[in-house]
From TrEMBL:
It is an enzyme of class 1 (oxidoreductase). Residues 247-337 form the Alpha-glycerophosphate oxidase C-terminal domain. It comes from the Bacteria. Keywords: FAD, Flavoprotein, Glycerol metabolism, Oxidoreductase. It holds the Pfam family DAO. Residues 3-224 form the FAD dependent oxidoreductase domain. One of its GO terms (molecular function) is oxidoreductase activity. It comes from Flexivirga alba. This is Glycerol-3-phosphate dehydrogenase/oxidase. Its cofactor is FAD. SUPFAM superfamilies: FAD/NAD(P)-binding domain.
Length: 347
């Protein structure tokens, strides 16, 4: 009850505590992976869309200029998630939508751990709370078939919002309503076509090699991303008869995970977000190390760091892709001015 004061205490006979679920910000993970790849020689191109691919190259379009270019390669891996079948029509996907709600953590008595609520009638399926470092908590998630064209930005539906509230509320001391919801977001799982409900389709990943040597990796889960990458690269090495040494992923830390922070001025929050780079995020101007607002612990210095070191190009990058401020429309409106000033100063 000390960790989860927002849970209903009546009829509580015991508890089980686990230590998984430590990743709280997938945007930070994606950025760290891209920067780590660049450290080892990768060229990371944003705003580029693959139009056509084969095992020997791709035709890509610059999203800023509209120009198209042909890239040649010794191997090509199609890791485009729910868009994978647009590059290899032999693949048949059955995407499912996972929706989350965003609430202020104070609505849940500021619980400092993940709490799972069982979904009635489904063994081993839960709706959970996921506290964030910015004073918000995510509540998720659904598993609904998502037919038709794949949208660039999936959105939550009213039935999904009701489902999440109805499932989490029985374990909470204070009932959440729609008025407590300050934002929503959804994502799509790239599940391979199979019989049965999407919630029953295996989350195991698959690596498929086309006759022309194009390697596609689909399915899987965030927690197994390194194994997925290893299997995909192994397949590309075999398909294209490349020379390669053994995989070193298991012993290769991401940027920011190499050692303990050296700058004691960095807050615990910055260390959680940036690891050993937390000190480098701090600005020489103390005012830029202050929170944007009482509800937004993100600092202008973090925007500066994203522009200088993380490939951010505009306001949307700062608010929606390097931080998660954009998930809450009211917070986004407050932060837009600060983000615009940072972009203007950097450009």
């Amino acid at each position: 009850m000390q960790l989860a004061p927002g849970v209903r205490p009546d009829d509580l006979t015991g508890a089980s505590l686990g230590w998984d679920g430590q990743l709280v910000d997938d945007a930070r993970l994606v950025t760290a992976i891209a920067r780590s790849a660049a450290l080892y020689g990768a060229k990371v191109l944003t705003r580029v869309r693959a139009i056509e691919t084969t095992g020997a190259g791709a035709r890509v379009r610059d999203g800023l200029t509209g120009e198209e270019h042909d890239l040649k390669a010794r191997a090509v891996i199609n890791a485009t998630g729910v868009w994978a079948d647009q590059l290899d029509p032999r693949i048949h996907l059955r995407p499912s939508r996972g929706t989350h709600l965003v609430v202020r953590s104070t609505s849940l008595s500021s619980m400092d751990c993940v709490v799972n609520a069982p979904v009635p009638g489904h063994f081993g399926r839960f709706v959970f709370t996921l506290p964030q470092l910015d004073g918000t908590t995510y509540i998720g998630l659904t598993d609904e078939p998502a037919g038709g064209d794949v949208p660039d930005i999936p959105t939550a539906t009213d039935p999904e919002i009701d489902f999440l509230l109805d499932t989490i509320n029985p374990v909470l001391a204070t009932t959440l309503t729609r008025d407590d919801i300050i934002g929503t977001y959804a994502g799509l799982r790239p599940l391979l076509e199979a019989d049965g409900d999407t919630s029953d389709i295996s989350r195991r990943h698959a690596v498929l090699t086309a006759p022309d040597g194009l390697v596609t990796v689909v399915g899987g889960k965030l927690t197994t991303y390194r194994r997925m990458a290893q299997d995909a690269v192994d397949a590309a090495v075999r398909a294209r008869s490349l020379t390669a040494g053994p995989c070193v992923s298991a012993t290769t830390p991401l940027v920011g995970a190499e050692s303990a922070p050296t700058n004691r001025a960095a807050s615990a929050r910055l260390v959680r977000r940036y690891g050993s780079e937390a000190g480098a995020v701090l600005s020489g101007d103390p005012s830029r190390n202050q929170p944007i607002s009482p509800d937004l612990p993100t600092t202008p210095a973090e925007f500066d760091f994203a522009l200088q070191h993380e490939g951010a190009l505009d306001i949307d990058d700062l608010l929606d892709r390097r931080t998660r401020i954009g998930l809450v429309p009211a917070d986004r409106a407050v932060a837009e001015v600060v983000a615009a000033e940072a972009v203007s100063a950097y450009s």
